[in-house]
C-alpha cells in the first residue's frame, strides 16, 4: 500500500493557483509531497505551461530527481499528449533521462506497442484500466504479468457506479490470476470515496490536483502537499501505511 502524489495531469493553469506547470514547480511541489508522506510521484511534463509534451520529460525528470532523490517518478504516455502514435513512440525512444515508470491507457489502440517499447527501455509500466473492457484487453496480453502495477482509474462521478466499475475490473484481474499490485483512484467527486475504498481493500492509491482540488469536507485544498497530508492521515487512521 502506497500513496502516490499526482501533481498536475492535463489540468489547465487556471484550475488551481498552486498547480505546478514548470519543471522547477514540479520539483518543488514533489519534494513537499514526499515530505508530506507520498511514496511516489506522477506528473505530466509541459513544454509550455499550456501544453503537455513528452519532449519535456528529460528536463522535468532531471529537476524532480534532484529534488527528490530515491523517489520513484512516473509520467503519462497518454495518446492525447502528442496526438500521433508515431510521434509518441519516437519521443519515448528518445528519452535520455527516462522516468522509473510510465502509465499506459489500455483503452488506447497503440497501448501494446507502447508497453513493449517501455519494456525494451527498462521502464516500469502502470497498466491503466478505466473499464471492464480495458481489463479484458489487458488480461489477454502476452506480457501482462510484467507490469509494475495495475492502475484502476475510474472516471464515473456517481460513487455507486464508480465502485461497481472498480470492482468489475478487479474481479476480471482476480479471475485471470493477475498477481500485480493494484492502485485505485477516482476523479473529482469520487476522489475521496475511492481513496477510502482503496484503504479498506488495502490497495495503493493516489491523490493530487490531477484528480481533484477539494478536500473531503468540500473545501479547496491549499496545494498538492495539503491533499497528500490528508490522504496519509486517513490511511494511517487504522494503522495503514
Automatic annotation (TrEMBL):
Which GO MF term does the entry hold, naming one?
3-keto-5-aminohexanoate cleavage activity
Domain of life (superkingdom): Bacteria
Q: What is this protein called?
A: 3-keto-5-aminohexanoate cleavage protein
* Organism classification: Bacteria, Pseudomonadati, Pseudomonadota, Alphaproteobacteria, Acetobacterales
Amino acid at each position: 500500500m502506497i500513496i502516490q502524489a499526482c501533481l498536475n495531469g492535463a489540468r489547465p493553469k487556471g484550475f488551481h493557483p498552486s498547480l505546478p506547470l514548470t519543471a522547477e514547480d514540479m520539483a518543488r511541489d514533489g519534494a513537499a509531497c514526499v515530505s508530506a508522506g507520498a511514496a511516489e510521484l506522477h506528473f505530466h511534463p509541459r513544454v509550455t505551461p499550456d501544453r503537455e509534451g513528452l519532449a519535456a520529460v528529460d528536463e522535468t525528470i532531471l529537476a524532480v530527481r534532484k529534488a527528490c532523490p530515491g523517489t520513484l517518478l512516473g509520467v503519462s504516455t497518454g495518446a492525447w499528449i502528442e496526438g500521433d502514435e508515431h510521434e509518441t513512440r519516437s519521443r519515448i525512444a528518445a528519452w535520455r533521462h527516462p522516468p522509473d515508470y510510465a502509465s499506459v491507457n489500455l483503452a488506447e489502440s497503440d497501448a501494446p506497442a507502447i508497453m513493449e517499447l517501455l519494456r525494451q527501455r527498462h521502464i516500469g509500466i502502470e497498466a491503466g484500466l478505466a473499464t471492464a473492457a480495458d481489463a479484458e484487453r489487458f488480461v489477454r496480453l502476452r506480457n501482462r504479468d510484467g507490469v509494475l502495477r495495475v492502475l484502476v482509474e475510474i472516471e464515473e462521478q456517481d460513487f455507486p457506479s464508480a465502485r461497481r466499475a472498480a470492482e468489475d475490473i478487479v474481479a476480471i484481474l482476480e479471475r485471470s490470476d493477475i498477481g500485480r499490485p493494484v492502485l485505485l483512484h477516482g476523479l473529482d467527486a469520487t476522489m475521496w470515496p475511492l481513496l477510502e475504498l482503496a484503504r479498506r481493500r488495502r490497495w495503493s492509491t493516489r491523490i493530487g490536483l490531477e484528480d481533484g482540488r477539494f478536500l473531503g469536507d468540500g473545501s479547496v485544498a491549499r496545494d498538492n502537499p495539503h491533499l497528500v497530508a490528508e490522504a496519509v492521515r486517513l490511511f494511517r487512521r487504522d494503522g495503514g501505511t
